[in-house]
Amino acid sequence: MQLLQDRRAIITGAAQGIGRAMVDSFVEHGATVLAIDIKPLDALHKNASHPEKLHSLQIDITQATAPERIMHAANEMLGGLDILVNNAGIASFMPITETSDVAWSEVLELNLSSVFRLCRDAVPLLKSSDSGRIINIGSVMSTFGGTGLAAYAASKHGVAGLTKCLASELGEFSITANFIQPGAILTDITRGSIRQYPEMETFWRNKAALGRWGEPADIAPVAVFLASDLGAFVSGTGVVADGAAMQAP
Ligand SMILES: NC(=O)c1ccc[n+]([C@@H]2O[C@H](COP(=O)([O-])OP(=O)(O)OC[C@H]3O[C@@H](n4cnc5c(N)ncnc54)[C@H](O)[C@@H]3O)[C@@H](O)[C@H]2O)c1
Prior knowledge:
Radius of gyration: 17 Å
Oligomer: single chain
Bound molecules: nicotinamide-adenine-dinucleotide
Distance between the termini: 43 Å
CATH superfamily of the domain at 8-91 and 112-143 and 156-184 and 216-237: NAD(P)-binding Rossmann-like Domain
CATH topology of the domain at 8-91 and 112-143 and 156-184 and 216-237: Rossmann fold
Helix content: 40-55%
CATH class of the domain at 8-91 and 112-143 and 156-184 and 216-237: Alpha Beta
Strand content: 5-15%
Shape: globular
Strand order of the largest sheet: 3-2-1-4-5-6-7
């Protein structure tokens, strides 16, 4: 019996990075996945180990109509929903004095408001599941702050608060809600930052007690655990996967 056999999942930000690794792992563990991204998802289909278990929708999740369209697609393509993974997000690095209202709103809209809307609109479907799961991708910046990270950290602290409230409100329907807190993971987001600030590469490698950057494949198994029956009594919490980078000195 596979860990996610016959489970139906939505994963946002699925075209690359952590989202793509989660799609691959979920499918390998037996789930059927609706992959969502603003970018084309053709490469995901082309390389899928079980193409029959993969569906996709190319859509900007910040659009007002996106949640309704995504839940409709889940009903049509998956026949319901057991697991919602909110992963799509953008990084931002800007000192507070250089952060415009527009830049602030852009980060908060994608990283927090779209997560809120998708969670809210998924609840009716998740209530019909006997093992509903919400997994939001936060960050170590859901707990900590840092220079240049005001908008990003505010959005990820928001994800933590939102998820804890979802866990409180939805427990009576046997729905769990948790957030994952990755540390520094090598993906397009961070490769771009490293190109801009090359010293970042050694900074985060040295900061992690495990002495390396994380890979998307380090995060996917955490999501599989939370989504599966193994995580049935874990709710309302953040799971840190950062190679012990944020330990107190
Ligand atoms: N990489 C890290 O070090 C790190 C650390 C902590 C948390 N995270 C979080 O993990 C998540 C995934 O990050 P990643 O590193 O894999 O980034 P990534 O840039 O590789 O992937 C993000 C995906 O989200 C998609 N996306 C962006 N805007 C969208 C929109 N409006 N609608 C639909 N899809 C959209 C992108 O097209 C992309 O495929 C993010 O929430 C990020 O904040 C990443």
